[in-house]
From TrEMBL:
It comes from Pelosinus fermentans JBW45. This is Uncharacterized protein.
C-alpha cells in the first residue's frame, strides 16, 4: 500500500459505482473520481521517474477535465505531431518530451484499457517512453 501522502485523494461524495460514458458504453467504475488535473500529472511524473511504462490511471476525468489536463501538461508552445487532426500533441520540457494524446482509437476505447480514454506520455531524451498513462473518461 502507498504511504498516505502519496495515495490518490478520494472524494467519497463523487465516487461512482457505475458509469456510462459519452460513447454509450457502460462499465463499473473501478477508479476514483479526479479531484484535480494535478493528480494525474503527478501520477504521470512519478511513473516517468520510475520508468513505469504502460499504466492505467488511478483517476478518471470528464471531457472538460481531459482538455484541461492536456492544456496544463503542455502549456504554451506545444505542437501537433503526425498528420493534421492526429490528436497527438507534444512539447519538449528539458530533456524530456511531454505528450498528450486524444486520438480517435483511444476515444473509442479500441485498446487497453478498452474503454474511452486519453493519454499522458513522457519520453526520455532518446524518445523512449518512460510512462504511457491511460486516463479513462467519464461524463
Amino acid at each position: 500500500m502507498r504511504p498516505a501522502s502519496t495515495r490518490p485523494r478520494v472524494i467519497p461524495e463523487v465516487e461512482l459505482q457505475n458509469s456510462t460514458n459519452p460513447f454509450g458504453l457502460s462499465k463499473p467504475n473501478t477508479a476514483v473520481r479526479l479531484s484535480g488535473v494535478d493528480d494525474v500529472i503527478s501520477e504521470s511524473l512519478a511513473g516517468a521517474k520510475n520508468g513505469a511504462g504502460n499504466i492505467t490511471s488511478n483517476f478518471r476525468v470528464n471531457t472538460d477535465e481531459a482538455l484541461a489536463l492536456g492544456d496544463k501538461l503542455l502549456g504554451q508552445g506545444y505542437k501537433e505531431v503526425g498528420k493534421a487532426g492526429s490528436g497527438v500533441f507534444e512539447k519538449q520540457v528539458g530533456s524530456q518530451t511531454y505528450r498528450f494524446r486524444i486520438d480517435e482509437n483511444s476515444l473509442l476505447g479500441k485498446h487497453a484499457p478498452n474503454e474511452p480514454h486519453v493519454h499522458v506520455e513522457i519520453l526520455d531524451e532518446n524518445r523512449n517512453i518512460l510512462v504511457n498513462n491511460h486516463i479513462p473518461l467519464i461524463d
